[in-house]
Each structure stands twice: as C-alpha cells, then as structure tokens.
Design a protein that fits this description.
CATH superfamily of the largest domain: FAD/NAD(P)-binding domain
Largest sheet: 8 strands, mixed
Number of domains: 2
Number of helices: 12
Low-confidence stretches: 102-109, 153-176, 366-373
Strand content: 15-25%
Structural class: alpha+beta
Shape: globular
Length: 470
C-alpha cells in the first residue's frame, strides 16, 4: 500500500456493510479503499440469516446475484410458542409479494423474496470479492489505527501531505479531508480520504475516532450459537426449506434453528439475565446450549445425532447505536452505526439497509451529492466536494436514524411480550394471546416488513391490546 495515497472513500472494515458500500461506490466510479483487518474471515457465530426485506436491499444495491450464489432460500418460517398451538409455517415469498404488490416483487419473479441462510464468512468473502471486481482496492490484514483531521475545516491542511499528490493510480490531485492511519504486515502507512466509512462492527473503534456518542440499552438478554452437522429439521414442502423459532416466554428462553445448507444447521439459544447468567462459551458449553434450546421447545429428536461443527460463543442482546451516524466527512454503517439484538435476527438486513441508505444519499441527484454524469456501472457519478458530502451525510443520518429507531421500538415491544419472564409478564400474555389468535396482524412483523412495519403509537396500542377490550 502506497504511503500517503489518497482516495475518494476509505472504508474501515470489509464485512457485509462495508463491502456493500465499497461495491456500489466503486461501481459508480469512486476511488475506494477497503481496509479489512482479517486476512481470512472466520466463523463469528452470528449473522447467518437475512430476512426478505434485507434480500430486497441486496437487490437494490446490485448484490442480489452475489447473495444468491452463497445463500440457501428459506421460503417458510415457523414460530412456536410454549403452551400455544403452532400455526402453519408462513410462506414468506407469498407474504412479501402481497406486502409490496406486483411492482415490488423482483422483475421476472412470480413471488416476493424469501429469507435466506448462509455461512457468514462465505457471504463476507463473496461481497468483498464483488467490491474488488467493481474497482475497489482491498487490503486484507490491514488494521486501521486512527483517523486524523476529524472536525478540521473543509480544505484544511490536515489532509494528505502535498507529497502524496501525483500521478499514481488512486491518488487525488488535491488534499484529502481526513487521514486514516493503518498497519499491515508490520508496516504503518497513512491514506487520505474525502469520505471515511466506519464499518468495523459492534465493538467499533471508528466511533471513538470520529467522536460519535454511543448509546446502549440495558443488558437483559443473552444469545449464544453454534454450527451443527447431522441435525434434523422439519420442513414445509422441500427438505430443509423452513426456519424455526421457539419461544418459552415464562422462562425467558428462545431458540432459532436455521438450515444453512444440506449438511449444516445453525442453532441459537437465548435467555434472560433475570434467570441468571450462563457461561455459554467454548466447546465445554455445547451440551448446556443444546439443553437450553430443547428447554425453549426444540424437539430433542432434531438434535439426537447432531455434532458440533464450529465454535460456540455468547453475545449480549443489548442494542447499541450512535446518536448521529455522520459528522464532517465520517459516516458509520452496519453494527458500528447501530447493532440490534441478535435474537431478533435483523442484523444482516439492517446492515444492507444502512449501506443502501448511505450510498443512495451519495448517489442522489443534485444537492445530495451526485453530479448529472454517470459512472461506469450506470450510477450517477459522485461529487466529493465537502458540501455535497455533508449534504449526503445529513440525508443518510436522517434515513438511518428513522430506520434504526423504528426497529428498536418494534423489537423492544416483542421482547417485553415474548422474552420477559415473571408473573406480571405472564398476566399480560394471558390477555394478549387470545387477541393475537383472533388477529395475528396485531404482532409487528420484523421478518417480512422489518422497520417498515408500523411502529407509531397506534401500532403500539394495537400490539398491547390497548385498543380493545381484553
């Protein structure tokens, strides 16, 4: 990597959100650098499912084919609640087509999107390779160590040194607004950028470098998972075509069973800290995790011949987010901007929604950042003048704060009803279950509609039965 080189965009983190941004911006003609710390992606025990609204975002980004190549469609979704009869599996494609209407369904498709399952490292690798094919420069094993010049006035000399300007490929004719310090293969270097995108995950360091204020919910739920081989899973029509979610609300338990391919099944288990903290980490916790998911409702026969086929890890379910995901040439996307409780399964879809919202803003015509010319992929060419970038960043911030705020409200309501143990919660559920049985549409649909599901005061009253005589 050339020390002092300058780019239009430097993306810190080449995971799902970062690679998606790099793919679209490079395809529009931007000079993009991606700094990815991991030389090779490893199983991090989460992020193996994407809901229909996330699949639709992949297609809007131009990444539908990349996703299809590594993912398994899960057309059917079955939710089981302890003590209640299990409804028929949902046909997600049919529901998505009905929700969006004929114009919203994929061109040439007779139905809407399904959910999809995949092995997370395989999706990461495919997206990053797509970004590279689109023209992004990708450096693996490169860890960003600082971002300098944040908050400097536009045109300030805190950008790339004069010596960096020149004729080399990827070097701008002027100064970059921000400087990104990084290390790869034992060598330190710096690069300049008109826009820095922090996409370095839930424990983001970019947040601190950009001065972003991080907020978090109280930690109440925990979530653990492992990859299995040899697990049996019931199906609706075709083998392994159905995802299953199990709730045991009075015990605060959850389980998810996701067929990843013909051989592998991802199993997750969640519990409420009111029932005590468990140490679900490492191979020694395998049997305990299986016991938890069986207690949540997974039939023991599904797991009778299952063997561990990957690491076992546990995560906090507390939502984290930043108060403003853009400031002065520095944007956050993916979990760095907002990480949702993994037990509701929205993280991958949310990452692509954020990537689409940011790149939409940068590519919007006129005042939101793009010039009338078009880039090599047919997208509008992007203006990286500071005022244009700031206008796009502001538009992105408005859009993503709306999205993440809505999703946080919806999952918070679901948590209070489906995951909260205790007598008070049991009494509430006793009143709500009959209402939900008569009118299932009262329950927010984070699987098909995601953050587009109504989350206003009327929707809340409808969910909690405040609009009806219980």
């Amino acid at each position: 990597m050339q020390d002092g080189a300058a780019f239009d965009v430097v993306v810190i983190g080449g995971g799902v959100a970062g690679a998606a941004c790099a793919f679209r911006l490079a395809g529009a003609g931007a000079h993009v650098l991606v700094l990815e710390r991991e030389p090779r992606f490893a199983d991090r025990v989460r992020g193996d499912v994407m809901y229909p609204w996330g699949v639709a975002e992949a297609r809007r980004l131009g990444l539908g084919g990349v996703l299809d190549a590594v993912a398994r469609p899960l057309r059917y979704w079955q939710t089981h609640v302890a003590g209640l009869p299990s409804p028929r599996p949902r046909d997600l494609a049919a529901e998505d087509a009905a929700r969006r209407g004929a114009a919203g369904a994929r061109e040439g498709a007779g139905a809407g999107e399904t959910a999809v399952a995949f092995f997370h490292p395989e999706l990461q690798a495919a997206l990053l390779a797509a970004a590279e094919r689109a023209g992004a420069r990708v450096v693996r094993g490169a860890a960003a160590t600082a971002v300098l010049g944040v908050g400097a006035p536009h045109g300030d000399d805190a950008g790339v040194p004069d010596s960096a300007a020149g004729e080399a490929e990827g070097v701008l004719g002027g100064r970059g607004k921000l400087r990104v310090m990084a290390r790869a293969a034992g060598t330190e270097f710096e690069v300049g950028a008109r826009l820095v995108i922090g996409a370095d995950g839930r424990s983001s360091r970019a947040r601190a470098w950009g001065g972003f204020r991080t907020l978090a919910d109280e930690e109440r739920l925990m979530f653990a998972g492992v990859m299995l081989e040899g697990a049996a899973v019931s199906s609706a029509r075709e083998p392994r075509d159905t995802a299953h979610v199990f709730f045991a609300p009075s015990a605060g338990l959850l389980a998810m069973v996701l067929p990843v391919d013909e051989r592998r099944t991802r199993v997750y288990g969640g519990y409420h800290l009111a029932t005590g903290r468990r140490r679900l980490i490492g191979d020694g916790a395998f049997r305990e995790l299986l016991g938890l998911v069986e207690a949540a409702g997974v039939p023991s026969r599904w797991l009778a011949t299952a063997k561990q086929a990957g690491p076992l890890a546990q995560f906090s379910g507390a939502d984290t987010w930043v108060s403003m995901p853009y400031a002065a040439g520095f944007a956050l996307v993916g979990d760095a901007a907002a990480a949702s409780d993994p037990s509701f399964g929205c993280g991958m879809a949310l990452a692509l929604r954020g990537a689409r919202e940011l790149t939409d803003a940068l590519l919007a015509p006129g005042e939101l950042g793009a010039s009338p010319a078009t880039g090599p992929a047919g997208e509008p060419a992007i203006s990286f003048e500071p005022a244009a970038v700031d206008a796009a960043g502001s538009a992105y911030a408005d859009a993503t704060l709306h999205t993440t705020g809505a999703l946080r409200r919806l999952t918070g309501w679901l948590r209070d009803v489906y995951r909260e143990p205790g007598e008070r919660a049991d009494a509430l559920r006793a009143e709500l279950w009959p209402l939900f049985a008569r009118d299932p549409a009262r329950v927010p649909d984070v699987v098909v509609a995601g953050p587009d599901s109504p989350s206003d005061a009327a929707a809340r009253a409808r969910f909690f039965g405040d609009d009806a005589s219980r």
